[in-house]
Amino acid sequence: MRSDIDILSESLTLPCGLTLKNRISKAALCDGLAGSDNHPNEKHAALYGRWGEGEVGLLFTGNVLLDRWHLERPGNIAIVGKQSNRSLAMLADMAAASKQNGAAIMMQLNHAGRQTQKIINKNPKGPSDVGLKMGNGRFGKPTAMSREEIIEIIEGHVHAARVAQDTGFDGIQIHMAHGYLGSQFLSGLSNTRDDEYGGDLAGRSKYLLDIVRRVREEVDSGFAVTVKLNSSDFQKGGFSGEESAVVARWLQDAGVDLIELSGGNYEQPRMINFDRKDPKAEKKRESTRRREAYFLEFVPMMRENVSIPIMVTGGFRTVDAMARAVDEDGVDIVGLGRPFCIDTRVADRILSGEITEIPDLTEDTRVGRGLLGPTSPISFLRDLNAWSELFWYYAQMDRLAELQEPDLEMSGFKALMMVDKAEAKAAKALVR
Predict the structure, then answer these.
(1) Which of 36, 81, 118, 381 is most deeply buried (CB count within 10 A of its CB)?
(2) What is d(CA 159, CA 421) in angstroms, rounded to the nearest whole number?
(3) How far apart, in whole angstroms, are the C-alpha atoms of residue 198 and residue 200?
(4) Which pTM value belongs to this model?
(5) How far apart are CA 64 and CA 112, in angstroms?
C-alpha cells in the first residue's frame, strides 16, 4: 500500500510532454513587487528563487497583466508591447531561479476588467457595463469593450506567451477565475453582450477558447497551456458548476494541458473561504464545510468530462487530505498558496514526512497549541474584512523578497496599514 508521501512524490507528465517531479504546486499568489513601470526586478528572482530551491514540483507566478490600465494591484508585472532588454533579463532570471531544483514554472496571465480599483483606473472596461455590487466605492462602473478591444487582449495573451516561452518559462496559465475579465466573460451576470462574445455558454466561452487557440498556434508543442477556471461563481445566475464542466471539455478539445479549479469572485469570495452577504449568493454545501479543500466536490463532475490533469487549490492543510485527493478523488496536483508565504520549504517538509499538518493562522485553537504564540496575528482581520487578511500575507512576501524571514508575530493591523499605504503610493507613482 502506498504511503501519503509516495502518492504526493509521484511524477506527472502533462499532455504537452512536460514532466512535473511531484504533485505539489505553489499556486499563484499576487506578489506586487514591480515598480512604477510594472517591470520585473531583482525582488522577483529572489522570491521565486526561495520557493524554487525546495522540493515543490510546480510554481505559478502571481498575476502578470496584459493592460497597464487594468492592473489587479499597482505592483503587478505587466507585459504590454515590446519589452526592454532589462525586463526580458529579469524575467529570465525569475524563471531560472524558480527552476533551480527541478520545478516547472508557469506565468499566470490576467486582465482585471471591472475588478480594477479606482486608484488605478476610474473607468475600467469589461464585457458589459455591469458594475460590481459591493458598495465600498473602490471600483468604477465599467464600459463595455468593443470587439476590437477584445481582439487586442486576446493577442496580448499570445504576445505574453511568446515572451514567457522565450525567457525560459515552461508554460502559461490563463486566469479565468475569481471574477477577473475572463471570468466576467463566462458569467451571465456580468456578460450581457449580444454579439458573438455573449449570449449562450458557447458565446460567453469564445473569449477563452479564442485565447487558447491563438496561443496554441504560436507556441511550441512542448510549452504548457493551462487554465485557472472557476468551478462556480457561487452566485445565482452566474457561472455554474455544470457550465464549468462543459467548458472544461471544450478546453481539453482545444489542447489545454491542465485545469486548475478554483471559485468565487470579489462579490462572493469563496476562493478565500469567505461568504459575503449577497442576495445572489448560493449557500455553501454541507459537504464543502466538511472537507478541507474548498472546491474538491466539483472534481467528479469534471472527471465525467475530461481526462487531462486537474489541480485543486484552496483549503488543504493535512497531508492525509492531500494524498486522498490525489489517490481517491481524481485530483492530479494539490495547490498550496498561503502556506508558502510563511514557510518557503513547506513542500520539503511534507514530502520528507517532517509534518503531517500545516498550521492555519486564522484559527486561534491551533495558535493556542503554541505554534505561533498566545494570539493569532491575523484572526481579527477576518472579522474586520476578509480581504484585509491578504495584506498580512502580502507583507510576508515582501519580507521573503528582501531575503528576510517571515515575521509571524507581525500584527494584522500593522500589515494592513503598511500595505494599504504602500498600495496607494504605488498607484500614484505608476508611469503610463
Answers:
(1) 381
(2) 33
(3) 6
(4) 0.91
(5) 10
